[in-house]
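Worked example

This section walks through a single chain of length 141. The input is the sequence exactly as stored; nothing has been trimmed or padded.
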Amino acid sequence: MANPDWMEWITWLPPYTLAELVAKPSDVPAYNGFYAFNLDYDKLHKDRVLYIGECHRDHGFQARFRDYLHPDPKNSKTKHKAALFLQDYRLTYPSRTVYVRFCPMDTDKQTRRDLEAAIMQYYNAWFNSRDMRYATHFDTL
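Given that input, the structure is written out below as tokens.
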């Protein structure tokens, strides 16, 4: 089966481990686009993606990732739902490696929302709830 057409626009950069970014948050890029938390080093695989997100703000991912990178998940004050899910995952499975990938992309708000929904739906991201049933203009096969 062929991949959806929108995949040609998505270029995931090599992964970091979540532990690397917690230890050194300055490695988080300052640009905008999409990000994925997943369980595999080589690439994203369906049903192995924890969360898909998008960012379009000043300081890019660096500003967005503050909630995700708390060194001690037990003491985090975040209310961000995905960050809470990831913190719970880190506490429940401390020996499992979570990878983080970034895809730089600047686009308009509607395209960004549609692509984010298509990516999360295509990979069946575990911790995404918002937009999992959103009728995106992009094929999710």
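What to look for: The chain has a mean pLDDT of 88.
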